[in-house]
């Protein structure tokens, strides 16, 4: 079975919510829509206090090359525009909307009827993806329309759809593949048309045999789309690792995946593309898994963007008396939240609730140079060395030891027997090195 | 609701720990320890026990009394140093000499560098070499196996097989003539020969080695490249002149090679960190071992070979990097 070669770990999968069908979460009474939900420049706000907005109406527009439109997830009145605490713990501008009812913007087709016919041209598809605010739903939230625009001199030949979901616990992509399989495949076909490629590969880890079987059968009705089972190994959902696993090609250090002729999109993105292109529906809702040992009822919800995370936890059985940590995302790369009151963003794939006893880090002891961090690093780096170089503030060395290649998958800290916070140091080193690199470019 | 814990990712951790690794090594040493108790009896028990107690106690005292820091003796690393040092001395070594060995191993070779993980040289080997140079007579009186089970002092001693070989060759005897004076290979494999406590039984050491491989405490490159390079180098010499150079199998089974290749050269702290680096390290150990054994003044060269290669580890780490992802551009 295919997988990437170097490094990787296999944490306990704990996919508690794999059998929980997607439930539609009630629309929140008050929605908090942040203007920064994507990689790049925050969107510019178009509404003001007291304005009436409809579901799907454009409320903040893309304000730069790498940016994305944001639409109202609910119908109601703008209560105010204010900075709220986001998932990183910082305050960021948000549009706060008090919900009244649920009336959709004109032109959006709300029915569940599946539209197979792709009528739009390549340019129209990219334009619509851009207009309707579709971003990568795998976690990085890179605006999807930019991925569709192949740089001069490069050539796309293969579309890869990422259904790996290698993070433990999370099941939102898994459920989406089972319940919206046909739509994902149509979305894939749309992306193929937009890229002008004739081949697409869907990669799924083989701990989801039902999803592999379901999409394999459905893919027979689509030309050029094939489904591939992958050996379970974290971080296979990383773009570079997935390309390596499926094609054997390696993205050169510091370069973009297009160098290998591949464009990678998440299954969630493929679904959002289907909805945008075939139904004119902007990206205003997504599937979010609520799970973990402190989740009373592990669930998958279809959630409007801007819903406070506390409402999801409430719906999943409420707060556990022994709750110690709330994480947005999976246990390997997710962000620990300072409060469950922060809203769901376009990139929120799951909420992981951890018990107190599993929330603390391990005790730190001396590095014994066991080299386990080197053997698990999927990028072929030496985490112990990068930690030390950052600690002694030798950033020139850190740069030449390729600290910027680190994708922050966390395999090194996960595996370290001495419990050393390797990734904490590497993150710090990366930001210092990026700063040096930027300054050098200015000169 | 209480305050939430906030920390950087990752939020889950593997269940390994330094102490689990160290106690795993201790378990892997048990077969060889039992063999040493069987062949050398009471002397082996006393030496092993004393070395472990000395090492743990010294580490505890240095940490609490001199360095004024929290003690880490429960991680098991001092226990390993104790056992390995005991494995490297004859079973009738005077206890006070053993104590000095432990003091050098723990005090000088380990704690003076900052403790576990910071020592450039293998502490047990430093202790052994210090003893060998300071007390060359006591360190080379090898009690015969089985015969001395119940004696603590005045044991009947004899030379090791490597000693017999070196002595004989110096007296102009040829290898075929010497073969009758050497133990047969089965006895050497099982450990029914004179020598340091823990080095005698290749079989018991190999069992421990496989346990550590299975538990992922060690990896294959160092032991394999070490043993193969000894076999190959000694084999070439043997092919050139079988009268002067004994066959390579003897070199594999004799002396401390198995102990060194499986337990000493593989010490995580003092060995390289990448597979290619480990192969070079093992190869260097192998060549140096044979060079010292065949052309040097000492009959045995494992300790010196490993210590010399320990010194090259920072260089090896600098020269042999892991294969970086995306470095070699392959398309198709």
Separate helix tally of chain B: 13
Shape of chain B: globular
Kindly report the name of the CATH homologous superfamily of the largest domain in chain A. NADH-ubiquinone oxidoreductase 51kDa subunit
Mean of pLDDT of chain A: 94
In whole angstroms, how far apart are the ends of chain A?
A: 49 Å
Tell me the domain tally of chain B.
2
What structural class results from the helix and strand content of chain B? mainly alpha
Given the C-alpha coordinates, what overall shape of chain A results? globular
Strands ordered across the widest β-sheet of chain A: 1-14-13-17-15-16
Unreliable segments of chain A (pLDDT under 50, ≥5 consecutive)? Answer: none
Count the E strands of chain B. 2
Could you say which structural class the secondary elements and strand pairing of chain A correspond to?
Answer: alpha/beta
What Rg of chain A do the Cα atoms give? Answer: 21 Å
Give the helix tally of chain A. Answer: 13
What share of the residues of chain B does DSSP label as strand, in percent?
under 5%
How many structural domains does the protein architecture of chain A include? 2
**CATH class descriptor name of the largest domain in chain A:** Alpha Beta
Distance between the termini of chain B: 55 Å
Radius of gyration of chain B: 21 Å
SSE topology string of chain B: HHHHEEHHHHHHHHH
Main β-sheet, spatial strand arrangement of chain B:
1-2
Jot down its keywords.
heterodimer, A: 443 residues, alpha/beta, Rossmann fold, 2 domains, six-stranded mixed beta sheet, four-stranded antiparallel beta sheet, globular, B: 332 residues, two-stranded antiparallel ribbon, 13 helices, 2 strands
């Amino acid at each position: 079975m295919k997988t990437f070669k170097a490094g990787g770990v296999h944490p306990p999968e704990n996919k508690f919510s794999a059998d929980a069908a997607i439930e539609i979460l009630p629309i929140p009474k008050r929605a908090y829509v942040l203007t920064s939900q994507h990689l790049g420049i925050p969107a510019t706000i178009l509404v003001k206090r007291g304005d009436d907005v409809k579901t799907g109406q454009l409320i903040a527009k893309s304000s730069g090359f790498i940016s994305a439109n944001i639409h109202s997830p609910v119908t109601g009145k703008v209560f105010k525009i204010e900075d709220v605490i986001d998932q990183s713990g910082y305050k960021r501008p948000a549009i706060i909307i008090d919900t009244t009812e649920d009336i959709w913007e004109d032109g959006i087709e709300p029915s569940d009827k599946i539209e197979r016919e792709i009528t739009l041209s390549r340019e129209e598809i990219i334009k619509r993806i851009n207009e309707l605010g579709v971003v990568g739903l795998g976690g990085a939230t890179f605006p999807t329309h930019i991925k569709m625009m192949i740089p001069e001199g490069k050539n796309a030949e293969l579309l890869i759809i990422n259904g790996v979901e290698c993070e433990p616990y999370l099941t939102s992509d898994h459920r989406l593949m089972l319940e919206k399989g046909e739509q994902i495949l149509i979305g894939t076909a749309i992306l193929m048309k937009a890229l002008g490629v004739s081949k697409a590969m869907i990669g799924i880890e083989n701990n989801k045999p039902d999803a592999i079987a379901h999409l394999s059968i459905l893919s027979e009705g689509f030309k050029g789309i094939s489904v591939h089972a992958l050996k379970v190994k974290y971080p296979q959902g990383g773009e570079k690792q997935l390309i390596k696993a499926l094609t054997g090609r390696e993205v050169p250090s510091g370069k973009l995946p297009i160098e290998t002729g591949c464009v990678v999109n998440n299954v969630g993105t493929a679904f959002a593309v289907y909805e945008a292109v075939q139904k004119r529906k902007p990206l205003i809702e997504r599937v979010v898994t609520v799970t973990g040992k402190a989740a009373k009822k592990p669930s998958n919800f279809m959630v409007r963007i801007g819903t406070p995370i506390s409402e999801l936890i409430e719906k999943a059985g409420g707060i556990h008396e022994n709750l110690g940590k709330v994480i947005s995302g999976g246990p390997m790369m997710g962000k620990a939240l300072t409060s469950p009151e922060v809203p769901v963003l376009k990139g929120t794939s799951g909420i992981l609730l951890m018990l107190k006893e599993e929330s603390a880090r391990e005790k730190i002891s001396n590095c014994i140079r066991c080299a386990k961090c080197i053997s698990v690093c999927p990028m072929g780096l030496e985490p112990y060395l990068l930690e030390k170089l950052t600690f002694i503030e030798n950033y020139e060395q850190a740069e030449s030891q390729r600290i910027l290649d680190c994708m922050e998958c966390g395999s090194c800290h996960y595996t370290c027997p001495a419990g050393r916070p390797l990734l904490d140091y590497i993150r710090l080193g990366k930001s210092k090195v990026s700063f040096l690199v930027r300054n050098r470019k200015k000169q | 609701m209480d305050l939430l814990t906030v920390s950087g990712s990752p939020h889950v951790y593997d269940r390994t720990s330094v102490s689990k690794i160290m106690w795993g090594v201790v378990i892997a040493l048990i077969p060889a320890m039992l063999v040493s108790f069987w062949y050398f009896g009471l002397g082996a028990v006393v030496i092993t026990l004393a070395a472990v107690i000395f090492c743990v106690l010294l580490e505890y005292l240095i940490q609490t009394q001199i360095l004024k820091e929290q003690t880490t003796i429960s991680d098991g690393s001092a226990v390993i140093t104790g056992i390995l040092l005991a494995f490297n001395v004859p079973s009738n070594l005077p206890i006070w000499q053993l104590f000095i060995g432990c003091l050098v191993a723990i005090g000088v070779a380990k704690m003076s560098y900052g403790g576990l993980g910071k020592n450039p040289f293998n502490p047990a080997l430093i202790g052994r070499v210090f003893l060998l140079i300071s007390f060359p007579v006591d360190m080379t009186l090898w009690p015969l196996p089985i015969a001395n089970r119940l004696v603590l002092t005045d044991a009947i001693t004899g030379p090791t097989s490597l000693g017999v070989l070196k002595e004989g060759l110096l007296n102009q005897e040829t290898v075929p003539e010497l073969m009758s004076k050497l133990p047969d290979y089965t006895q050497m494999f099982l450990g029914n020969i004179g020598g340091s406590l823990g080095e005698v039984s290749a079989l018991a050491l190999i069992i421990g080695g496989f346990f550590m491989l299975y538990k992922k405490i060690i990896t294959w490159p160092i032991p394999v490249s070490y043993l193969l390079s000894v076999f190959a180098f000694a084999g070439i010499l043997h092919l050139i002149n079988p009268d002067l150079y004994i066959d390579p199998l003897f070199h594999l089974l004799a002396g401390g090679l198995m102990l060194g290749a499986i337990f000493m050269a593989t010490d995580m702290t003092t060995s390289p960190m990448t597979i290619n680096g480990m192969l070079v390290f093992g190869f260097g150990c192998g060549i140096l071992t044979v060079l010292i054994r065949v052309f040097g003044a000492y009959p045995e060269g494992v300790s010196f070979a490993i210590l010399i290669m320990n010194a090259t580890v920072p260089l090896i780490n600098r020269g042999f990097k892991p294969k970086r992802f995306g470095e070699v551009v392959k398309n198709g």
